[in-house]
Amino acid sequence: MRVVDVVDLMCLQDEGEHPHGISNVRFDALFTSDRPVIFAYHGYPWLIHRLTYKRTNHNNIHVRGYIEEGTTNTPFDMAMMSNLDRFHLVIDVIDRVRSLGARAAHVRQNNGGRADRGSGVHP
């Protein structure tokens, strides 16, 4: 597992598209060319897809991001409503990394105890 902290979104573009962009070789070295990538982003997911659509591994990039619900909440509530909390990110990993499937099925199955508590988000 690898964690990549993207500070400048423009680096996701090719170096020929933007001055901050990186080469395909560098992009593949950071994000791999054949492994699942789970991208947690505080904005709209489509932006990440638009910035990476020409990259080798684009089909394996899954973006969790802001889901518009038309309401104002705390940052914690927004993360929960957008499925950006740690639990959902772990489930994304379990769903996409084949070798984890059987070993981590219990985490996915019991829903981390959340089914009993609800999301914690108040309408």
TrEMBL record:
<keyword id="KW-0456">Lyase</keyword>
<dbReference type="InterPro" id="IPR005593">
    <property type="entry name" value="Xul5P/Fru6P_PKetolase"/>
</dbReference>
<protein>
    <submittedName>
        <fullName>Phosphoketolase</fullName>
        <ecNumber>4.1.2.9</ecNumber>
    </submittedName>
</protein>
<dbReference type="GO" id="GO:0050193">
    <property type="term" value="F:phosphoketolase activity"/>
</dbReference>
<dbReference type="InterPro" id="IPR009014">
    <property type="entry name" value="Transketo_C/PFOR_II"/>
</dbReference>
<dbReference type="InterPro" id="IPR018969">
    <property type="entry name" value="Xul5P/Fru6P_PKetolase_C"/>
</dbReference>
<dbReference type="Pfam" id="PF09363">
    <property type="entry name" value="XFP_C"/>
</dbReference>
<feature type="domain" description="Xylulose 5-phosphate/Fructose 6-phosphate phosphoketolase C-terminal">
    <location>
        <begin position="1"/>
        <end position="110"/>
    </location>
</feature>
<dbReference type="GO" id="GO:0005975">
    <property type="term" value="P:carbohydrate metabolic process"/>
</dbReference>
<comment type="similarity">
    <text>Belongs to the XFP family.</text>
</comment>
